[in-house]
Amino acid sequence: MSEIHHKEVTLKELAIKTNEWLSYLRSKWLIMLIGCLCGMVLGYLYATYKKPKYVAASTFALEDANGGGSLGQMAGLASMVGIDIGGSGNGGVFQGDNLIELYKSRNMIQKSLLNEADFNGKKQLLIDRYLEFNHLKEKWAKHPVLKNINFKLKQNDRLTRAQDSVLGEVVKEIGKNNLVVTKPDKKLSILKVQVTSKDELFSKAFDDEIVKNVNEFYVQTKTKKSLQNVAILQHQTDSVKRELNGALAGMASLTDANPNPNPARQILKVPSQRRQVDAQANTAILTELVKNLEMSKVSQRKEMPLIQMIDAPVLPLTKLATTKTQGMVVGFFLAGFLMSVLLLVRRGFLLMIK
What is the largest CA-CA distance in the chain? Predict the structure, then answer.
Protein backbone atom coordinates (compact mmCIF):
# COMPACT_ATOMS: atom_id res chain seq x y z
CA MET A 1 0.00 0.00 0.00
CA SER A 2 2.85 2.39 0.81
CA GLU A 3 4.39 1.83 -2.67
CA ILE A 4 1.03 2.57 -4.34
CA HIS A 5 0.63 5.70 -2.23
CA HIS A 6 4.16 6.80 -3.17
CA LYS A 7 3.36 6.35 -6.91
CA GLU A 8 0.13 8.31 -6.58
CA VAL A 9 1.95 11.17 -4.90
CA THR A 10 4.64 11.10 -7.60
CA LEU A 11 2.06 11.27 -10.40
CA LYS A 12 0.26 14.08 -8.64
CA GLU A 13 3.49 16.01 -8.28
CA LEU A 14 4.26 15.40 -11.96
CA ALA A 15 0.84 16.78 -12.92
CA ILE A 16 1.37 19.82 -10.74
CA LYS A 17 4.83 20.47 -12.16
CA THR A 18 3.54 20.10 -15.71
CA ASN A 19 0.76 22.53 -15.05
CA GLU A 20 3.27 24.99 -13.58
CA TRP A 21 5.46 24.82 -16.67
CA LEU A 22 2.48 25.24 -18.98
CA SER A 23 1.30 28.22 -16.92
CA TYR A 24 4.78 29.69 -17.29
CA LEU A 25 4.58 29.32 -21.08
CA ARG A 26 1.11 30.94 -21.11
CA SER A 27 2.50 33.84 -19.11
CA LYS A 28 5.06 34.37 -21.88
CA TRP A 29 2.45 34.40 -24.66
CA LEU A 30 3.56 37.77 -26.00
CA ILE A 31 7.18 36.66 -26.43
CA MET A 32 6.02 33.43 -28.09
CA LEU A 33 3.67 35.32 -30.38
CA ILE A 34 6.46 37.66 -31.46
CA GLY A 35 8.73 34.65 -32.08
CA CYS A 36 6.02 32.89 -34.13
CA LEU A 37 5.47 36.03 -36.21
CA CYS A 38 9.20 36.23 -36.82
CA GLY A 39 9.10 32.56 -37.86
CA MET A 40 6.29 33.33 -40.33
CA VAL A 41 8.34 36.14 -41.87
CA LEU A 42 11.42 33.92 -42.15
CA GLY A 43 9.30 31.14 -43.70
CA TYR A 44 7.89 33.60 -46.22
CA LEU A 45 11.36 34.83 -47.16
CA TYR A 46 12.66 31.25 -47.42
CA ALA A 47 9.84 30.26 -49.78
CA THR A 48 10.37 33.42 -51.82
CA TYR A 49 14.10 33.08 -52.43
CA LYS A 50 14.52 29.31 -52.42
CA LYS A 51 14.95 28.04 -55.97
CA PRO A 52 12.62 25.22 -57.02
CA LYS A 53 13.90 21.82 -58.05
CA TYR A 54 12.86 19.96 -61.18
CA VAL A 55 12.28 16.22 -61.35
CA ALA A 56 12.88 14.19 -64.52
CA ALA A 57 11.69 10.58 -64.27
CA SER A 58 11.94 7.64 -66.66
CA THR A 59 10.29 4.27 -66.22
CA PHE A 60 10.94 1.26 -68.42
CA ALA A 61 10.28 -2.45 -68.43
CA LEU A 62 13.18 -4.84 -68.66
CA GLU A 63 12.58 -8.33 -70.02
CA ASP A 64 15.43 -10.80 -69.88
CA ALA A 65 14.79 -13.34 -72.61
CA ASN A 66 17.32 -15.79 -71.22
CA GLY A 67 15.78 -19.21 -70.68
CA GLY A 68 16.03 -22.90 -71.28
CA GLY A 69 13.65 -24.93 -73.39
CA SER A 70 14.60 -26.88 -76.50
CA LEU A 71 17.28 -24.37 -77.45
CA GLY A 72 18.97 -24.83 -74.08
CA GLN A 73 18.92 -28.61 -74.61
CA MET A 74 20.53 -28.22 -78.04
CA ALA A 75 23.18 -25.95 -76.50
CA GLY A 76 23.87 -28.60 -73.86
CA LEU A 77 24.26 -31.35 -76.49
CA ALA A 78 26.51 -29.14 -78.57
CA SER A 79 28.71 -28.39 -75.55
CA MET A 80 29.27 -32.15 -75.08
CA VAL A 81 31.20 -32.21 -78.33
CA GLY A 82 33.11 -29.01 -77.59
CA ILE A 83 30.86 -26.53 -79.38
CA ASP A 84 29.53 -23.52 -77.49
CA ILE A 85 26.56 -21.96 -79.30
CA GLY A 86 25.44 -19.75 -76.38
CA GLY A 87 22.08 -19.82 -74.68
CA SER A 88 23.40 -21.35 -71.51
CA GLY A 89 24.64 -18.16 -69.77
CA ASN A 90 23.72 -17.36 -66.26
CA GLY A 91 21.89 -14.17 -67.24
CA GLY A 92 22.20 -12.76 -63.76
CA VAL A 93 25.06 -10.28 -64.17
CA PHE A 94 22.89 -7.16 -64.05
CA GLN A 95 19.62 -8.33 -62.60
CA GLY A 96 17.71 -6.67 -59.77
CA ASP A 97 19.84 -4.58 -57.41
CA ASN A 98 22.93 -5.08 -59.60
CA LEU A 99 21.34 -3.03 -62.38
CA ILE A 100 20.39 -0.30 -59.89
CA GLU A 101 24.00 -0.13 -58.67
CA LEU A 102 25.16 0.07 -62.29
CA TYR A 103 23.22 3.32 -62.63
CA LYS A 104 25.06 4.76 -59.61
CA SER A 105 28.51 3.63 -60.73
CA ARG A 106 31.12 6.29 -61.42
CA ASN A 107 31.68 4.99 -64.94
CA MET A 108 28.06 5.50 -66.01
CA ILE A 109 27.58 8.88 -64.30
CA GLN A 110 30.92 10.20 -65.55
CA LYS A 111 30.26 9.02 -69.10
CA SER A 112 26.90 10.80 -69.07
CA LEU A 113 28.43 14.03 -67.70
CA LEU A 114 31.07 14.10 -70.45
CA ASN A 115 28.43 13.91 -73.20
CA GLU A 116 27.00 16.94 -74.95
CA ALA A 117 23.34 17.96 -74.96
CA ASP A 118 21.32 20.72 -76.56
CA PHE A 119 20.35 23.51 -74.13
CA ASN A 120 18.11 26.01 -75.93
CA GLY A 121 20.01 25.58 -79.18
CA LYS A 122 23.44 25.63 -77.52
CA LYS A 123 25.63 22.54 -77.38
CA GLN A 124 27.14 22.10 -73.93
CA LEU A 125 28.72 19.32 -71.89
CA LEU A 126 26.53 18.17 -69.03
CA ILE A 127 29.39 18.61 -66.58
CA ASP A 128 29.80 22.25 -67.68
CA ARG A 129 26.07 22.81 -67.26
CA TYR A 130 26.20 21.33 -63.75
CA LEU A 131 29.12 23.56 -62.72
CA GLU A 132 27.36 26.56 -64.22
CA PHE A 133 24.00 26.38 -62.44
CA ASN A 134 25.72 25.50 -59.15
CA HIS A 135 27.94 28.60 -59.58
CA LEU A 136 31.07 26.53 -58.98
CA LYS A 137 33.09 28.20 -61.73
CA GLU A 138 32.43 31.56 -60.11
CA LYS A 139 33.84 30.25 -56.84
CA TRP A 140 36.92 28.99 -58.67
CA ALA A 141 37.58 32.30 -60.43
CA LYS A 142 40.74 32.91 -58.41
CA HIS A 143 41.91 29.28 -58.19
CA PRO A 144 45.12 28.85 -60.25
CA VAL A 145 44.17 25.40 -61.59
CA LEU A 146 40.37 25.22 -61.55
CA LYS A 147 39.60 28.65 -63.03
CA ASN A 148 40.43 27.49 -66.58
CA ILE A 149 39.41 23.84 -66.27
CA ASN A 150 37.99 22.39 -69.49
CA PHE A 151 36.33 19.00 -69.95
CA LYS A 152 36.24 18.88 -73.77
CA LEU A 153 38.46 15.92 -74.57
CA LYS A 154 39.77 14.72 -77.88
CA GLN A 155 39.60 11.08 -78.90
CA ASN A 156 42.84 9.91 -77.26
CA ASP A 157 43.02 12.47 -74.44
CA ARG A 158 43.07 11.33 -70.83
CA LEU A 159 41.67 13.15 -67.83
CA THR A 160 44.10 15.29 -65.91
CA ARG A 161 44.38 15.05 -62.13
CA ALA A 162 42.26 18.21 -61.69
CA GLN A 163 39.58 17.03 -64.12
CA ASP A 164 39.46 13.62 -62.46
CA SER A 165 39.14 15.19 -58.99
CA VAL A 166 36.31 17.53 -60.03
CA LEU A 167 34.45 14.76 -61.80
CA GLY A 168 34.85 12.50 -58.77
CA GLU A 169 33.25 15.07 -56.46
CA VAL A 170 30.43 15.80 -58.91
CA VAL A 171 29.75 12.07 -59.35
CA LYS A 172 29.51 11.64 -55.56
CA GLU A 173 27.16 14.62 -55.26
CA ILE A 174 24.89 13.43 -58.06
CA GLY A 175 24.79 9.85 -56.75
CA LYS A 176 23.93 11.12 -53.26
CA ASN A 177 21.51 14.01 -53.89
CA ASN A 178 20.36 14.06 -57.52
CA LEU A 179 19.99 10.51 -58.84
CA VAL A 180 17.49 7.99 -57.48
CA VAL A 181 16.95 4.55 -59.06
CA THR A 182 14.21 2.32 -57.67
CA LYS A 183 11.98 -0.65 -58.45
CA PRO A 184 8.43 0.58 -57.74
CA ASP A 185 7.25 -3.03 -57.47
CA LYS A 186 9.75 -5.76 -56.55
CA LYS A 187 7.55 -8.36 -58.24
CA LEU A 188 7.81 -6.59 -61.62
CA SER A 189 10.84 -5.91 -63.80
CA ILE A 190 10.15 -2.18 -63.97
CA LEU A 191 12.80 0.39 -63.10
CA LYS A 192 12.31 4.07 -62.34
CA VAL A 193 15.19 6.51 -62.86
CA GLN A 194 14.69 9.94 -61.32
CA VAL A 195 16.97 12.98 -61.58
CA THR A 196 16.33 16.07 -59.44
CA SER A 197 18.21 19.35 -59.80
CA LYS A 198 17.78 23.12 -59.76
CA ASP A 199 18.11 23.25 -63.57
CA GLU A 200 15.15 21.89 -65.54
CA LEU A 201 17.05 21.28 -68.78
CA PHE A 202 19.91 19.53 -66.98
CA SER A 203 17.50 17.19 -65.16
CA LYS A 204 15.93 16.06 -68.42
CA ALA A 205 19.19 15.84 -70.40
CA PHE A 206 21.04 13.90 -67.69
CA ASP A 207 18.11 11.51 -67.20
CA ASP A 208 17.95 10.79 -70.94
CA GLU A 209 21.71 10.37 -71.20
CA ILE A 210 22.26 8.02 -68.28
CA VAL A 211 19.30 5.81 -69.24
CA LYS A 212 20.68 5.53 -72.79
CA ASN A 213 24.24 4.78 -71.65
CA VAL A 214 23.27 2.18 -69.04
CA ASN A 215 20.82 0.40 -71.35
CA GLU A 216 23.40 0.24 -74.17
CA PHE A 217 26.04 -1.10 -71.78
CA TYR A 218 23.55 -3.62 -70.41
CA VAL A 219 22.63 -4.94 -73.87
CA GLN A 220 26.27 -5.14 -74.98
CA THR A 221 27.26 -7.03 -71.83
CA LYS A 222 24.35 -9.45 -72.03
CA THR A 223 25.07 -10.32 -75.69
CA LYS A 224 28.88 -10.15 -75.61
CA LYS A 225 29.43 -13.90 -75.23
CA SER A 226 26.93 -14.86 -77.91
CA LEU A 227 28.40 -12.26 -80.29
CA GLN A 228 31.85 -13.78 -79.80
CA ASN A 229 30.47 -17.27 -80.49
CA VAL A 230 28.74 -16.10 -83.67
CA ALA A 231 31.94 -14.38 -84.85
CA ILE A 232 34.04 -17.51 -84.25
CA LEU A 233 31.57 -19.82 -85.97
CA GLN A 234 31.21 -17.39 -88.87
CA HIS A 235 34.99 -17.30 -89.31
CA GLN A 236 35.22 -21.11 -89.25
CA THR A 237 32.34 -21.43 -91.71
CA ASP A 238 33.94 -18.99 -94.12
CA SER A 239 37.30 -20.80 -93.88
CA VAL A 240 35.78 -24.23 -94.62
CA LYS A 241 33.73 -22.75 -97.45
CA ARG A 242 36.90 -21.38 -99.06
CA GLU A 243 38.56 -24.78 -98.71
CA LEU A 244 35.54 -26.47 -100.30
CA ASN A 245 35.49 -24.01 -103.18
CA GLY A 246 39.22 -24.63 -103.65
CA ALA A 247 38.69 -28.42 -103.74
CA LEU A 248 35.87 -28.14 -106.27
CA ALA A 249 37.93 -25.81 -108.43
CA GLY A 250 40.86 -28.26 -108.27
CA MET A 251 38.65 -31.16 -109.38
CA ALA A 252 37.37 -29.13 -112.30
CA SER A 253 40.94 -28.10 -113.23
CA LEU A 254 42.16 -31.71 -113.21
CA THR A 255 39.22 -32.83 -115.35
CA ASP A 256 39.92 -30.09 -117.87
CA ALA A 257 43.61 -31.03 -117.99
CA ASN A 258 42.90 -34.75 -118.59
CA PRO A 259 39.36 -35.17 -119.93
CA ASN A 260 39.88 -38.78 -121.18
CA PRO A 261 42.28 -40.53 -118.75
CA ASN A 262 43.73 -43.87 -119.78
CA PRO A 263 41.87 -46.59 -117.76
CA ALA A 264 45.06 -48.64 -117.63
CA ARG A 265 46.91 -45.89 -115.72
CA GLN A 266 45.23 -45.66 -112.29
CA ILE A 267 47.83 -43.18 -111.02
CA LEU A 268 46.17 -40.48 -113.10
CA LYS A 269 43.00 -40.78 -110.99
CA VAL A 270 44.72 -40.17 -107.63
CA PRO A 271 44.84 -36.32 -107.73
CA SER A 272 41.18 -36.16 -108.71
CA GLN A 273 40.20 -38.65 -105.98
CA ARG A 274 42.12 -36.64 -103.37
CA ARG A 275 40.27 -33.51 -104.39
CA GLN A 276 36.99 -35.38 -104.26
CA VAL A 277 37.72 -36.65 -100.72
CA ASP A 278 38.62 -33.12 -99.60
CA ALA A 279 35.41 -31.79 -101.12
CA GLN A 280 33.29 -34.44 -99.41
CA ALA A 281 34.98 -33.87 -96.03
CA ASN A 282 34.63 -30.09 -96.29
CA THR A 283 31.01 -30.47 -97.31
CA ALA A 284 30.25 -32.52 -94.18
CA ILE A 285 32.13 -30.06 -91.94
CA LEU A 286 30.45 -27.08 -93.60
CA THR A 287 27.01 -28.63 -93.09
CA GLU A 288 27.60 -28.97 -89.33
CA LEU A 289 29.15 -25.53 -89.03
CA VAL A 290 26.24 -23.88 -90.84
CA LYS A 291 23.82 -25.70 -88.56
CA ASN A 292 25.70 -24.59 -85.44
CA LEU A 293 26.01 -21.05 -86.80
CA GLU A 294 22.26 -20.76 -87.33
CA MET A 295 21.60 -22.17 -83.85
CA SER A 296 24.04 -19.64 -82.39
CA LYS A 297 22.30 -16.77 -84.21
CA VAL A 298 18.97 -17.92 -82.84
CA SER A 299 20.52 -18.05 -79.37
CA GLN A 300 21.90 -14.54 -79.82
CA ARG A 301 18.49 -13.18 -80.73
CA LYS A 302 17.01 -15.01 -77.78
CA GLU A 303 19.54 -13.54 -75.35
CA MET A 304 18.93 -9.98 -76.58
CA PRO A 305 17.11 -8.30 -73.65
CA LEU A 306 14.00 -6.28 -74.41
CA ILE A 307 14.00 -2.79 -72.90
CA GLN A 308 10.67 -1.08 -73.37
CA MET A 309 10.40 2.56 -72.37
CA ILE A 310 7.14 3.26 -70.52
CA ASP A 311 7.51 6.93 -69.56
CA ALA A 312 10.18 9.44 -70.58
CA PRO A 313 10.70 12.92 -69.12
CA VAL A 314 8.79 15.61 -71.01
CA LEU A 315 9.08 19.37 -70.56
CA PRO A 316 7.84 21.07 -68.46
CA LEU A 317 9.07 18.85 -65.67
CA THR A 318 7.50 18.39 -62.28
CA LYS A 319 8.54 21.31 -60.08
CA LEU A 320 9.24 20.89 -56.37
CA ALA A 321 8.83 24.25 -54.64
CA THR A 322 7.78 25.48 -51.21
CA THR A 323 4.82 27.84 -51.51
CA LYS A 324 4.73 31.04 -49.47
CA THR A 325 1.76 29.75 -47.47
CA GLN A 326 3.62 26.53 -46.66
CA GLY A 327 6.69 28.49 -45.65
CA MET A 328 4.68 30.74 -43.33
CA VAL A 329 2.83 27.85 -41.68
CA VAL A 330 5.98 25.80 -41.16
CA GLY A 331 7.86 28.87 -39.93
CA PHE A 332 5.07 29.70 -37.44
CA PHE A 333 4.95 26.26 -35.82
CA LEU A 334 8.71 25.70 -35.92
CA ALA A 335 9.36 29.07 -34.28
CA GLY A 336 6.69 28.33 -31.65
CA PHE A 337 8.33 25.01 -30.82
CA LEU A 338 11.82 26.53 -30.61
CA MET A 339 10.61 29.43 -28.47
CA SER A 340 8.90 26.99 -26.08
CA VAL A 341 12.07 24.94 -25.73
CA LEU A 342 14.23 28.02 -25.17
CA LEU A 343 11.86 29.46 -22.52
CA LEU A 344 11.63 26.14 -20.68
CA VAL A 345 15.40 25.67 -20.74
CA ARG A 346 15.89 29.25 -19.47
CA ARG A 347 13.43 28.70 -16.60
CA GLY A 348 15.04 25.39 -15.66
CA PHE A 349 18.47 27.03 -15.64
CA LEU A 350 17.24 29.85 -13.40
CA LEU A 351 15.68 27.35 -10.98
CA MET A 352 18.96 25.44 -10.78
CA ILE A 353 20.84 28.63 -9.91
CA LYS A 354 18.40 29.45 -7.13
Answer: 138
